Every structure is written in structure tokens, then in C-alpha cells.
Amino acid sequence: KYFLEAARSGRYPRDYKYAAGIYERQGNTATVQQIVNELAKSPGNPDAQWASYERYRLPRTDWEKTGRKNSQLENQWLAAADDYLKHYPKGEFANECRFRVGEHQQAQKDFVNAAKTYSEVSGGEYGFTAKFNAAECNYLALVAAERFEEAYRVAVEPNPFVSTCGRVCTALCEVKAEYAQLFRKRGEGPTPHPTRAVTSAW
Q: 13, 25, 134, 196: most buried, per Cβ within 10 A?
């Protein structure tokens, strides 16, 4: 309460973040949302970018807790991610937002746009996975368009032994009980895809 009052006085602009942290630990999500919405509209505040990210993180976290089944929360975090990227295209959290949007596009089988979004993830924690996800999406988009030779070239670019790997890999990452459920219970990790079936075709 006192941090929030101090922040709104204009004398202590960074106290918004302290107040939000206290309310979140208390489980008062509604007040946290109010604070970050207010702060995100103040571009002169040193924590405005953080607030814009929190507008994405909070509904995404809640969406994960529902087993990724709440469409309202899903639309909310997607809109907030787009808003963050609009205002901070090279911001501190841009890679995460792009990666998660790319995952969503991939899950919706929008492979062309997913590949484009993944390709815009540059380095950092998400860069390595994004590179291979982009290749997978490009491959699947080309296969769907029956452009098989181009699809093959895309498939072997990151891995020249793609056909062999597709046949010998045990593909534990595709096993729901050992991969998808495990990570989704913790609210993190990418969605598994039938990579063995895709790669062994060559």
C-alpha cells in the first residue's frame, strides 16, 4: 500500500515494481494487474518495459495453470506479447515473447508465420531452440505445399544425418507421460512434435 502511494506521488517511480511484487506474493493478482497496466502506460518510468512484460507473463502463467485450456487467458497473453513487441521490438524480454508466439502459431499449424516468428528470435535462452523450430516449421510448410526437394534441403541444413536420426532415435521427447505432461505441470517447455515420423521419411 505504502509503496504504491509513494509511486503514485511521482517522487518514487520505481516503487510500482516493489508494490507489485508484494501484492503478487500475497496472491492479489487483480491489484498486480492494475499496477502493471498503469505503469505500462507511463513510458517515462524506468520500469515501464518490465510492466509491459508482466502484462504478458501474468495471464500466460495463469493459462499454464489451467492446462493451457482457458481461451480467454490465451488471447490475453497473446495480445500482451504483441503489444510488448510493438513497443519494445529489441527489448529485454522480446526473445521470450517471440518464442511463445511462435509456439502458438506452430500449435495452430500456421507453419509459415511460425517459422518467420522463430527466425526473429536472436540468441539468448530461446535462440538455439528457435533455430530448429523454424527449420521444422519451414519443412512442414514445404511438405504441405508438396515442395519436397526444398523440404529435404531445409531438413538437412541443421542436421546432415536427418534420415538416420529419424530411424534410430527412440524419440522419448514425443512420449506424453515423460515429456509433455512433465513440463506442462511445471508450466514450461515447448510442445512436442512427431519429429521421428517427419525425419524418417527421408
A: 134
CA–CA dist 133, 193 (Å, integer): 10
Distances (CA, A) of 54 to 32, 120, 183: 9, 21, 22
Residue 81 and residue 56 in contact, taking contact as beta carbons nearer than 8 Å? yes
**3-state SS string for 114-168:** HHHHHHCCCCHHHHHHHHHHHHHHHHHHHHHCCCHHHHHHHHHCCCCCHHHHHHH
- Return per-residue pLDDT of the chain as tens, 202 residues: 556 555 555 665 667 666 777 667 777 788 888 878 887 887 787 889 999 999 999 999 999 999 999 999 999 999 999 999 999 999 999 999 999 999 999 999 999 999 999 999 998 889 989 998 998 899 899 988 888 888 878 877 766 666 666 666 666 555 554 445 455 544 555 444 555 555 555 5
Answer whether 0.85 is exceeded by the pTM. Answer: no
Compute CA 44 distance to the chain's CA centroid, rounded to the nearest angstrom.
Answer: 27
Question: Are the CB atoms for 34 and 41 separated by under 8 Å?
Answer: no
Q: Are 102 and 114 in contact (CB under 8 A)?
A: yes
